[in-house]
Write a structure and sequence with these properties.
Elements lengths: L1 E2 L15 H8 L2 E4 L13 E7 L8 E5 L5 E5 L11 E4 L3 E7 L1 E8 L3 H13 L5 E3 L2 E5 L2 H10 L3 E7 L11
Parallel strand pairs: 2-5, 3-7
Antiparallel strand pairs: 1-2, 4-5, 6-7, 8-10, 8-11, 9-10
Length: 173
């Protein structure tokens, strides 16, 4: 469901602007209240993108701008998580998609069970978000964690990558 007047991609009668340009010129804001379930191919549509880091993909209330400058107010149900590729808006001419932003992360090589357990213990104590893939653990860059890894002699690298934290269904309390 979207609150909008006019839709971002519709042509306004008597103008030569694309719908996106028209929306920018009127300084209107698109309000997104739910993700769009895509059942059709979107390749023929004009595409606009919002780049969001892992924390912003978890905010159900925020104001953001697309790559083409369209302002969007996100008003999703509490607890909604946006994923890479989610569609926030779609009409006959265009769509607005979420793209996970590459961000600074620490990628840690998990060589042995003892080192892996020690890293898990230390990161868990710090409530650091983590992701796992191919014998590697990733966490958002933090100079204190980098210092700890140096002191412990753990192999790691700092790089830019898409971060999607591991999710569980349990919580404290």
């Amino acid at each position: 469901m979207h609150d909008r007047i006019p839709a971002p991609c519709l042509m306004h009668a008597g103008t030569s602007f694309s719908g996106m340009t028209y929306l920018l010129n009127l300084k209107l804001m698109l309000i997104v209240k739910e993700k769009i379930i895509v059942t059709a191919n979107l390749n023929s549509l004009e595409r606009d993108t919002v780049f969001l880091n892992w924390e912003d993909r978890r905010k159900s209330r925020q104001k953001i701008k697309t790559e083409k400058g369209v302002e969007i107010a996100i008003a999703l149900p509490t607890g909604t998580i946006l994923n890479d590729g989610d569609i926030l808006y779609r009409d006959d001419k265009c769509c607005i998609a979420v793209e996970a932003e590459k961000e600074d992360v620490i990628s840690i090589q998990l060589d042995d069970i003892t080192g892996s357990a020690m890293i898990a213990y230390e990161l868990g104590n710090r409530h650091a978000p983590v992701s796992f893939s191919n014998r590697r653990l990733m966490t958002p860059y933090n100079h204190l964690i980098e210092g700890l890894l140096k002191r412990l002699g753990i192999r790691y690298e700092c790089k830019k990558d898409i971060f999607e934290p591991f999710r569980t269904t349990t919580s404290h309390g």
